[in-house]
Design a protein that fits this description.
This protein is an alpha/beta fold. Helix content is 32%, strand content 19%. It has two domains: 10-16 and 71-236, 2-Layer Sandwich (Nucleotidyltransferase, domain 5), CATH 3.30.420; 21-61, no CATH class. The chain has helices at 29-38, 92-104, 121-131, 155-160, 170-176, 191-196, 201-222, and strands spanning 10-19, 63-76, 79-88, 111-114, 152-154, 233-236. A six-stranded mixed sheet has the order 5-4-1-2-3-6, with helices on both faces. Helix 5 crosses helix 7. The two termini are 33 Å apart.
Length: 237
Amino acid sequence: MLKTLDLNPVMVIDIETVPQYASYDDVPPNLQDLWEQKTQYQRKPEQTPESFYDNAGIFAEFGKIVCISLGIFYTQNKTQHLRIKSISNTNELELLTAFADLLKMQLPTLMFCAHNGKEFDYPYLCRRLLVNGIEIPGQLQIAGKKPWEVNHVDTMELWKFGDYKNYTSLNLLAAILNVPTPKDDIDGSMVRQVYYEEKNLPRIVTYCQKDVITTAQVLLKFKGMEIIQPENITIVT
């Protein structure tokens, strides 16, 4: 399983997103109308556009990125290590500018790895980069490329084994592969509350970093390798 995949150019990535506005009442009227149209098939009959607005963060047109966590593999003394770095900011333009600048320093052959990345993280990043007027880094561009030329790995896609109806959460996949995961004090559904009500961005960063670590460990399982021990995981600022 992925035996030939070289971990050196792999960057594990996870993003955390929130609605662009703290509440539905803050959304401009024209965007409220467009929100109602966008979500008409996602909402249950009893849900109003206003009550559904807590979910706006998952839509790139109505959400924004507040944290990007990145993980890089490296070997030291014949032991596998993982280095984690996060970019977080309440100002999305500054966050994405820093992210794009970081990618400029990476090789064009950089390979991304994320869980459900092809359906969420990668396209969301590209859309928000475009909205903010930032050139999409070459490592994220897929236009005109053949499938085998796209350096995007998705651990959920790997688990599908061609079954496109299947959805498996990162937590479930980690559990069945015996990947230990730290106990989280929040989950994805709480990120909006932590950001807007608690105003605790560092708490979101910690949550995002844990997902990067878990995704990296799951990738190692797909390669038939031992997981990385906690003492060999470094978080840098």
